[in-house]
Amino acid sequence: MKLPNEIAVFPLSNFIIFPKTTVPLQIFEPRYIDMVNNSMKSEKLIGIVQPKNKNKIEVEKPELYEIGCLGKITSFKETDDGRYLIDLKGIIRFKILSELKTIEKYRKCAVDYENYFNDLNEKSEDLKFSDLELIFKDLKTLFDKRGFIINWKALEKQSLDETINALAMASPFSLEEKQVLLEAKNLDIRKDKIAEILSTYTHDEYYNTTLQ
To answer: Phi/psi of residue 88, each to 5°?
Structure first.
């Protein structure tokens, strides 16, 4: 696949995708309906990136983190009320070089993939579930107390990179913490970062049942 140097970007607060991981998205804003329509006419590629401040997501053009992930639309369905239901598969992370001036209502950026070509490797990274037992235990506690429902048995049937990335994406971590996980160079570092983040959550926070 030829990677585009200019991409449409979809700013989503507290939401990340990783390479080789597929997520469902519901598209209903007119500008992003246009973005999907244009994407479907070409390579079906969209960049997912977080705005830096979750309290400013209503701002027309919130400042964006530099690192996001390019995704490809692998499934598309239009609902009776005009929404789009798509599946987006992560391909490779990117660094935003600049934002482009465009006549489109959605945002477009010039991007670079130089530091992330390893994302395209098909080989799974060498980790064992035994390496993750403590992380899984703490994550289960945090997920349960925050009211998050995860099919852990189904996760354990996936590859470890898929499992770690799925948990990172679904976690009740802050947008800043999720960005740290996205920017982690490889799976082993991401695993360690998850452990570090979990260690900052106090025992009392594990028992807080209010969704943040």
So the answer is: -120, 120
CATH fold group of domain 6-120: 2.30.130
Which stretches of the chain score pLDDT less than 70? Answer: 54-60, 123-137, 143, 146-158, 202-212
Name beta bridge partners: 108: 8
- DSSP state, 156? T
CA 11 → CA 48, 84, 113, 125, 202, distances in Å? 6, 17, 18, 29, 30
CB 195 within 8 A of CB 181: no
- At 59, the amino acid letter reads V
Alpha helices in the chain (DSSP H): 30-40, 133-145, 152-155, 160-170, 175-183, 187-200, 203-206
Please write the tens of the pLDDT for every residue from 143-167: 677 666 666 666 666 677 777 787 7
For residue 9, what pLDDT is reported? 97
Task: Report which of 5, 7, 48 is spatially closest to residue 25, judged by C-alpha positions.
Answer: 48
**Cβ partners under 8 Å of residue 38, min gap 6:** 8, 104
- Domain limits, the chain: 6-120, 129-205
